[in-house]
Write a structure and sequence with these properties.
By secondary structure, the chain is α/β, with parallel strands linked by helices. Helix 14 links the parallel strand 7 and strand 8. It is built from 16 helices and eight strands. The chain has an eight-stranded parallel beta sheet with strand order 1-8-7-6-5-4-3-2. It binds flavin-adenine dinucleotide (FAD). Flavin-adenine dinucleotide binds next to strand 4, helix 12 and strand 7.
Amino acid sequence: MPSEQIFDNTEIAFFLKSDSELERAYFLFKMISIEPLVRIGTAATNFALKAHLPIEGLIRASVFDHFCGGVNEEDCLPVIDKMFGKGVSSVLDYSVEGKEDEQDFDKSVKTVLNIIDFAKEIKAIPFAVFKPTGLGRFFLYEKISKGDALTETEKIEWEKVENRFDTICKKAQEANIAVLVDAEESWIQDAADMLVTKMMRKYNKNRAFVYNTLQMYRHDRFNFLKEQHKEAVEGGFVLGYKLVRGAYMEKENDRANEKKYTTPICNSKAATDANFNSALEYVVDNLENISLFAGTHNEQSSYLLMDLMHTKRLSNNDSRVWFGQLYGMSDHISFNLAAKGYNVAKYIPFGPVKDVMPYLIRRAEENTSVAGQTGRELMLLSKEKKRRKV
Ligand SMILES: Cc1cc2nc3c(=O)[nH]c(=O)nc-3n(C[C@H](O)[C@H](O)[C@H](O)COP(=O)(O)OP(=O)(O)OC[C@H]3O[C@@H](n4cnc5c(N)ncnc54)[C@H](O)[C@@H]3O)c2cc1C
């Protein structure tokens, strides 16, 4: 049934959580729902890490273990196995951010290649993932996005970035694994889009191996999607798109304010929601050319996508449609969808505690600022605690 309200089933949602994990999750969401606590906690943690104070253990026992699979790929194996037992796939996300030198970029490539090697052996990992700034300097993406000319040295550096993209996409295609390219700040996105489109043209001949990301909090992205669609039809290739709302809203608005340009962000949450849902409809209408990975914790959008699939008489496990959530969040969506046979994958971030802090801070801020979502998460955890009489 399409609009059946499946996400309220907390038994299915939290089946994999022990009583103590359930308690920890409840406590954690309660803490990060308090905005001043997150603000002060973030500043204190950043300071403590910079000052080399021994707080890694504390971070691990709290936010890290809830939102991350571990410090390396092997740590994530038990989680991958357990989730796959309930029909939920994994996307291993090497979430180290803010690196700026060539060695780190090569290390990111090596890590993603290892994950692809590993993924081709087991069905539980249908996607690899990387961030554009994991493979090249932020400054370079920014310069190209602005349309500024590169120096000769920068041209060589950019060629290396392009080669890194190509190495990963080629390997993914050979291994029959798709690869998701995350989206970041809007002022570096044009350069990233250019590269990813090039990869799609090269590797997405018959099916989508390479997926770009559209942040639908940007009011220009729906038109961009239509332009890309036209380009793909004319160029004889298939598009892969991860649709998300976008995780850098405050940073985007602050920069636009400071530099006095019109913000690229929709002017309200409702406008972002409408933009996201229109993109879902557009993609489902054009699945012969566009494959979809809907990265969202929003229940309405998830129900909408189920309805759209039902209207089009697609099977729940149509290989062109995936639902995606982040590890540690919205298990009620992931596990209930999987129980109904939909394709679902959760990002499992991993990496050294210190290096995944930007990721963790984004999650804490997101769960603070989007009050509705945290409230929902707490309500469901509390309902399950009562059901289990914890
Ligand atoms: C699998 C997966 C992959 C992801 N990959 C990326 C990625 O590559 N890049 C990226 O940027 N993010 C990524 N995200 C995060 C995502 O962009 C969202 O921040 C997060 O999922 C919350 O949005 P939501 O759709 O779950 O729904 P909701 O919780 O309903 O929406 C919250 C979002 O709405 C938007 N919003 C909130 N208030 C306003 C407002 N006043 N005006 C306009 N818009 C507003 C913001 O985007 C906010 O994050 C990913 C998320 C998932 C689940």
